[in-house]
Design goal:
The chain is α+β, with helices and mostly antiparallel strands. It is built from 3 helices and 8 strands.
């Protein structure tokens, strides 16, 4: 094989090896992240008595929420959590695997207008009003994109935890 032919073959091989890295779409995270478990806490029904399973939480802005733990989505059932602008507003966008989607749909179905709290590491991260049943993809509005990114980072498993 001539030297120029060998060089052509090597260049073609290097381009072929580099192609898989080019197939990543912008929606995919560059690095696979692992997420903490997210506890789902629901506001008790107005006509329900406050049982011992209702816990009082204080939000970052000083509001008090009374919420009851109803389920937990294991971090392994979370596909991605992204901070994005959705419809012109900052939000945290969650994508769940099928088991996690079934869990959150079961918790939020029929609960429009009630508060859903997301808790991780024994901290209430947010308390949102349910606008409709959640599924494999849902979003939670935040005040700023920085708030959305801060929330996203708080759900990523870090090596120092």
């Amino acid at each position: 094989m001539t030297r120029s032919r060998l060089l052509s073959v090597l260049l073609a091989l290097s381009a072929f090896v580099a192609l898989p890295g080019c197939s990543q779409t912008p929606d995919e995270p560059a690095v696979s992240e692992r997420y903490v478990d997210i506890e789902l806490h629901l506001e008790p029904a107005r006509d329900a008595s406050s049982g011992s399973d209702v816990r009082t939480w204080t939000t970052d802005d000083g509001r008090t929420r009374h919420l009851r733990h109803v389920d937990t989505i294991p971090g392994a059932e979370i596909r991605s959590i992204r901070a994005e602008i959705v419809g012109g507003h900052p939000a945290v966008v969650f994508a769940l695997a099928a088991p996690g989607a079934k869990r959150i749909e079961a918790v939020t179905d029929g609960q429009v207008g009630r508060t859903l709290g997301l808790v991780a590491n024994d901290r209430l991260l947010l308390a949102a009003t349910i606008a409709g049943p959640f599924s494999d993809r849902f979003q939670v509005a935040t005040a700023t994109l920085e708030d959305a990114e801060r929330l996203r980072r708080s759900l990523v498993v870090s090596d120092d935890r």
